[in-house]
Design a protein that fits this description.
The complex is a heterodimer. Chain A has strands at residues 3-7, 11-12, 18-25, 34-40, 46-53, 58-60, 68-73, 78-83, 92-100, 105-109, 113-117. By secondary structure, chain A is mainly beta. In chain A, strand 7 (68-73) and strand 8 (78-83) form a beta hairpin. By secondary structure, chain B is mainly beta. The chains are: A mainly beta, B mainly beta. Chains A and B meet through strand 5 and strand 10 of A and strand 4, strand 5, strand 9 and strand 10 of B.
Chain lengths: 119, 112
């Protein structure tokens, strides 16, 4: 059974970088599919941030394009989110998920990591 | 970006009754391959989003058949029959036709 788990700092200062790790077990991220980051803001709005494919290519939400980077460590079966120059508007719960493009579904999600941007 | 508009934003349902949630997209979600990339998710309190329905009407594995989806093109509906306590949460429609994938604002379902 596939499982995803987010980890990283829960508090980040404005103007600094937010870094999160998604650790995947039960499936090898190079075997297939796309590996996404999604966030949920206070008030329930959800935003897809971007993904890294099984081949290592990336695709980002244009609204974040100049600030976001998604990378991976295949030896650890992990992928990462870095969001630069954060503001209080980036306070959210961050989720990683597997996207199966043949079906058009994100079928497996992590439990979420709450990140607060505050000085 | 494709805009997803859900209604209502909140609904209160008596257990055992039915509920319907509508979702409208600003562009047809029908791909040239014949698949319509519209999914529904439920986020229960303190939980991650759970896939309910994909490609308009396909029930995800392990999901109760009290959930059903319908629609086409730009107009979609999620129906929950015989609402139970475990159905409480926020329901989202999502389009996966093109990036950036976009979500509806969410519909909060509560029990009367």
């Amino acid at each position: 059974e596939i499982q995803l788990q987010e980890s990283g700092p829960g508090l980040v200062k404005p103007s600094q970088s937010l870094s999160l790790t998604c650790s995947v077990t039960g499936y090898t991220i190079t075997s297939g599919y796309d590996w996404s980051w999604i966030r949920k803001f206070p008030g329930n709005k959800m935003e897809w941030m971007g993904y890294i494919s099984n081949s290592g290519s990336t695709n980002y939400n244009p609204s974040l394009k100049i600030r976001i980077s998604i990378t991976r460590d295949t030896s650890k079966n992990q992928f990462f989110l870095q969001l630069n120059s954060v503001t209080t508007e980036d306070t959210a719960t961050y989720y990683c998920a597997r996207y199966i493009w043949e079906l058009g579904v994100m079928d497996a999600w992590g439990q979420g990591a709450s990140v607060t941007v505050s000085s | 970006d494709i805009m997803m508009t859900q209604s209502p934003l909140s609904v209160a349902v008596t257990p055992g009754e039915s509920a319907s949630i509508s979702c409208r997209s600003s562009k047809s979600l029908l791909h040239s391959n014949g698949i319509t990339y519209l999914s529904w998710y439920l986020q229960r309190p303190e939980k991650s989003p759970q896939l309910l329905i994909y490609q308009i009407s396909n029930l995800a594995s392990g999901v109760s058949d009290r959930f059903s989806g319908s629609g086409s093109g730009t107009d979609f509906t999620l129906k929950i029959s015989k609402v139970e306590t475990e159905d409480v949460g926020i329901y989202y429609c999502v389009q996966f036709l093109e990036v950036p994938y976009t979500f509806g604002a969410g519909t909060k379902l509560e029990l009367k």
